[in-house]
């Protein structure tokens, strides 16, 4: 450890919270799937809490196999719908209403403090030291600042509401249960994007496009590039994961090098085309499924259905702009 708040400390905090969620589910007899729910979140916490220990004791190869096995188990738990939530969660409505009437808009201050403190620490906290050791991890400064901002905001929230810190853990468990397995989807998709890049999927797409489309047709290549960004994002759930694959497979070899397209507008509009896919897929869980779960909507796909016309319209505009601008 070369700083007080390092990436390791952040991961340990996340792992401890996930393990707490697992333990609370195991102790909740009102949850009909309490053991599988507890096992799901406990397994998910293993990578955060014990990855360094496993790397030290078992080596990289065995650790990677264990983590891969855990990922497959998590997918099976989600696929067979083995997660549930307790039916006798403590009703805090009266307490919440009392705090809301007493504090008014001050209730929002902890949430507002998080981005403000994070930005201030990112700009001015890099050189803060305690003794001879940096306070914040310089290699992961933003994440360390965010973690410290969350801790300070939580402390302020507890001081303002006079609530016990365990209330935050209990409410975290309620939110985690409400969101369910979709909570881990962004992390899994980010891992999948890395796998596609390492597997050189961009080269395969380049070969496929060469076989199916005339490389001399600039318009056809632009349409395939824009549609490919949207469709690949729908599959991956993340435009950042689709971007390197489609850029390496179509934009760079065919449009930029082959037809002399302007890189900046081409790639910017390509990313925007990817976000059109984000609006149309449940795989983009952090944008579509998680908010629906947090808002407790009965139809979790309703948000996507409303977004589809806008996404298709923006996608057509992107294609037209690419044809005339780049």
UniProtKB/TrEMBL annotation:
Q: Which UniProt keywords apply?
A: Membrane, Transmembrane, Transmembrane helix
Nucleus recorded as keyword = no
Pfam families per UniProt: DUF979 (PF06166)
Answer whether the UniProt record assigns the keyword Acetylation to this protein. no
Q: Which InterPro entries match?
A: DUF979
State which residue ranges cross the membrane: 39-59, 66-87, 107-129, 141-159, 179-199, 220-252, 272-294, 306-325
Supply the name of the protein.
DUF979 domain-containing protein
The organism named in the record is Undibacterium cyanobacteriorum
């Amino acid at each position: 450890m070369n700083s007080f708040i390092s990436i390791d400390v952040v991961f340990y905090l996340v792992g401890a919270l996930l393990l707490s969620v697992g333990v609370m589910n195991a102790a909740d007899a009102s949850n009909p799937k309490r053991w599988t729910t507890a096992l799901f979140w406990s397994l998910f916490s293993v990578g955060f809490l014990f990855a360094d220990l496993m790397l030290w004791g078992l080596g990289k190869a065995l650790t990677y196999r264990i983590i891969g096995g855990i990922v497959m188990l998590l997918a099976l738990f989600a696929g067979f719908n083995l997660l549930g939530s307790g039916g006798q969660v403590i009703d805090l409505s009266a307490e919440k209403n009392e705090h809301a009437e007493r504090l008014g808009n001050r209730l929002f201050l902890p949430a507002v403090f998080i981005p403000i403190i994070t930005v201030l620490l990112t700009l001015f906290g890099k050189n803060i030291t305690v003794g001879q050791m940096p306070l914040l991890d310089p290699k992961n400064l933003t994440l360390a600042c965010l973690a410290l901002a969350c801790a300070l905001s939580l402390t302020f929230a507890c001081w303002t509401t006079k609530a016990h810190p365990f209330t935050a853990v209990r409410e975290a468990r309620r939110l985690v249960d409400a969101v369910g397995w979709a909570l881990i989807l962004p992390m899994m998709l980010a891992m999948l994007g890395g796998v596609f890049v390492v597997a050189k999927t961009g080269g395969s797409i380049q070969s496929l496009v060469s076989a199916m489309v005339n490389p001399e047709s600039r318009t056809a290549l632009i349409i395939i590039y824009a549609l490919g960004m949207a469709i690949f994002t729908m599959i991956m759930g993340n435009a950042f994961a689709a971007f390197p694959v489609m850029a390496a497979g179509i934009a760079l070899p065919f449009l930029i090098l082959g037809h002399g397209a302007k890189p900046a507008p081409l790639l910017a509009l390509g990313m925007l085309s990817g976000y059109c896919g984000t609006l149309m897929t449940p795989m983009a869980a952090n944008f579509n499924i998680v908010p629906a779960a947090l808002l407790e909507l009965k139809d979790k796909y309703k948000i996507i259905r409303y977004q589809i016309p806008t996404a298709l319209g923006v996608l057509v505009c992107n294609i037209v702009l690419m044809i005339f601008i780049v």
